[in-house]
Structure formats: structure tokens, C-alpha cells
Write a structure and sequence with these properties.
The chain contains 13 helices and 10 strands. With about 325 residues, it is α/β, with parallel strands linked by helices. It binds 2-keto-D-gluconic acid (8YV).
Length: about 325
Amino acid sequence: MFPEVIERLKQHFCVLSNQADETWSSERLVENLQGKSGLFSTGGERVDASLLAACPDLKICSTMAVGYNNFDIDAMTAAGVLATNAPDVLTETTADFGFALLMATARRVTESEHFLRAGMWTRWSYDLFVGSDIHGSTLGIIGMGRIGQGIARRGAFGFGMRVLYHNRSRLDAATEASCKATYVSKQELLGAADHVVLVIPYSDASRHTIGAAELALMKPTATLINIARGGIVDDTALALALSERRIAAAGLDVFEGEPQVLPGLLKLSNVVLTPHIASATIPTRLAMANLAADNLIGFLVKGKPLTALNPSVLGPR
Ligand code: 8YV
């Protein structure tokens, strides 16, 4: 963690930090949480009923991520423990990365670089690493929250793309107009899009939103980008579809069971793989960490968190 964020926390709390970046087992996490009022999570720690039962002093768990699928919110609410996340501050940086991954995938940037570095480039030819166009193509966005809207704006206004989106609920007309996006069913989007970008939160319900059946609806020339969460895509089905060229290419920043990556994906040349770095710029990561710290200070010192996920627990515990 940024030392300055630890220092900020130390102005208010007695802090036990894991600056050695050791992997804490769940037993060690429980042990280290004894007598602690707050948890500052960098995203991976599972907070569920069994952890809460074993850590009776805990009052707040603050994650420095917008996604909070590591928190069992119902269990936290039942235990009277506040959950907070870190939205907004990462929106534009993450949308930038979604576009970077889309462009790298569609224009075969990493694949062609590996070819060059391996000394395989002996002559230029007209069809060397031909990819698919971004400008003027159809962009399909599944999950039209803040990050999805950021990607839509980049596509519509930066690259003249036709933007289709699918979301649990349709956006209001003004928001749709602000990103020039048209609401369609998931099936229609998958059939029409040249590039599909996934930006939905992970839950049991969104697991395998893209599996074999959905991949079969996509164009053989299409690309699929996942910057949401591992598990939104069935990675095994995707690896098969990519190896059979049933879709052209994929760009993945998140994986089922990460940091492990399905060996079938690692073998393929038509997939761009990055290690969950969509929000990784120093200003953004610092803003995320400071927001997570602000939530801890806001709640434990002033009684007012900034971005509560289960505000119903904000009464006396
Ligand atoms: C985080 C993310 O960097 O915010 C999220 O939901 O996936 C990333 O921006 C990661 O979760 C670690 O906190």
C-alpha cells in the first residue's frame, strides 16, 4: 500500500499493515483482525458470515475497488458491519484501459509484437497481421454503469462507432444521448456487435453471462473484451471458441480463478492477456486507496462514511 495512505490511517488508528505483501491465509486474516474495528481490503479478502462471526470487533470493511464481490453484503448487514467501496475515482482510467485492450485485441498489437521480438519478421506483406477496424464499427457494451458509459463515449465520440448496450435496466433518455448509445437485448447485441465489451459486476446471477451459447451468437469476426470480473465469461468455452476461430479474438484483464489463468488461453495467439490492471495508474490507485481510507476515517472517527454499500447498518451496532 502507498506509504502515505498508511501514514494517514496512522493519524487516527493503531494500524497493522501487511507491507511485506505476504499472503495471509483466512486463519491468519482472522487472527490479525482480532481487536480490530476496521479492515482495509485491497480487493481479494473474502468477508463472509464465518469471518464476521470470528471477528466480533469488526465494524467496517472498506475495499479500495469499485467491485465488491469479495464481500457478502447480506452477511455483513446481518452482522451490523458496514461495507464501503471505491467508486467513481477509477471510472475514466478503467474506461481508457477498456479501450486500450479493445484496440490491442482488434489490431493484434501484442501478437504482432511477439512475432517481431521472436525475430520472425523477415518481410512485409499486405496481409501481415491484418485486424479489424475500430472506427465506424459497432460496439456492444454489456453493463452500462459509469465505466460502461465512459467506454461508450470514447467509442461514439472518439471513434465514430455505433454503440449498442445491454444493462439490467435501461438508462434514461438523457444519459443514453450523452453517450449516443442504443438499448438492445443481449441476444441482439451479441449478434450485431463487432466488438463486445463486458463491464458488469460479478454475482451468482452474472456468472457465465458469456458462455458457449452466447459465443455462438457472436460474429466470427468479432472481438470480446472482459474488464469486469473473472467468472463473467466461461473461460473454458471461450478458449474453445477462440481456438476454433468461432470469434476472432479476445482481450482479457480478469480470469476465473485469477491469478491462475486457464492453460488453454495461454496457448492461444488470438487473445490478449493482462493481469487485472484496468485501474492501474498511480493517480487512480492513490485516489482509490485514499477513498478507502476516507471511508474508514469517515465512519470510525466521524460516524459518516462516504460510499456505504449497506447504509442500513448506520445505526448503533
Ligand atoms: C482493483 C477492480 O484494482 O475496482 C475494481 O473493482 O477490479 C480494480 O480496479 C482491484 O479490484 C484491486 O483492488
